[in-house]
Each structure stands twice: as structure tokens, then as C-alpha cells.
Specification:
CATH topology: Bit1
Helix content: 40-55%
Distance between the termini: 9 Å
Oligomer: single chain
Structural class: alpha+beta
Strand content: 25-35%
């Protein structure tokens, strides 16, 4: 996907653009279906984490960026890294910048020989410029 196509998928609200970025480990050589499932887990984790607390989520519980993203087109960009170390470094940097990050650790039941494995993470949703400062140089999946 070209940068222009990527930008066209993002939602502009009050001159700000919001998105979520999913970062997938490319070194694991996961089947495409497994990648899709893991990415979906990562994308939904920010909602699931709130549901676990009370079982109910109100839009008032979300910050402006999340509300704008949820009210828009749910723009998601999928990037890749080539190692667990790179994935962990992205996680740490995003957390240090105050971004919401959700790491997905697969149980290993269908792949990875029963070993729990960090497969991907989601950053955001948040302002594109904040996320791009961390993921902007990553290759698209």
C-alpha cells in the first residue's frame, strides 16, 4: 500500500487524523489466517480491556482520539518487524510516549509448539502524528 492510500484510509476530525497501527512479527512466518486473527485480537484489545472492568463501556470512558476513531472509519495500518526484540522496543517506546499499547501473546496451541509467543501489538487509536513518530519507518505488512 502506498503512503497516499494509507492516508486516504485515515479519518480526519477537526484537522486531526486518527488511526490505530498493528505491528506484526514477520519473523514468525505465521499463516495468513493466523496473522489476521492475531491482528484482530490486537485491534480489539483496547475495547476488551475496558469491558473486563465493568462489562459495559460508555463512549465517555474514551479519550478524544478514541472517540473520534470509534465514530469514524476505524482506520488501521498494519506494519511489520523482524524480531521479538524489535516488537518489544516499539512497545516500550510507544508506552514511554503515553500511547495505549496492547501486546498479544498467542497461547501456542495451534502454532509455536505450545510455547506462548508474542505475535503482535496494537498502538492506539490516537493521532496519526503521535503514532507515526514511532512506526512511520516500519515496512507495511
Amino acid at each position: 500500500m502506498h503512503r497516499e492510500e494509507q492516508l486516504s484510509q485515515e479519518i480526519s476530525v477537526q484537522d486531526r487524523v486518527y488511526k490505530q497501527v498493528i505491528v506484526m512479527r514477520h519473523d514468525l512466518k505465521m499463516r495468513r489466517g493466523k496473522q489476521i486473527a492475531q491482528g484482530a485480537h490486537a485491534s480489539m484489545a483496547f475495547l476488551a480491556s475496558r469491558l473486563k472492568v465493568t462489562g459495559v463501556v460508555s463512549m465517555n470512558e474514551f479519550d478524544e482520539a478514541s472517540q473520534a476513531w470509534l465514530s469514524g472509519g476505524f482506520a488501521k495500518i498494519c506494519c511489520r518487524v523482524d524480531s521479538e526484540d524489535e516488537l518489544l522496543a516499539i512497545r516500550d517506546l510507544a508506552s514511554q510516549q503515553g500511547l495505549e499499547v496492547h501486546m498479544i501473546t498467542d497461547s501456542g496451541k495451534t502454532e509455536f509448539h505450545g510455547v506462548p509467543t508474542n505475535t503482535c501489538l496494537a498502538i492506539g487509536p490516537d493521532e496519526s502524528s503521535k503514532i507515526d513518530a514511532i512506526t512511520g519507518e516500519l515496512k507495511l505488512l
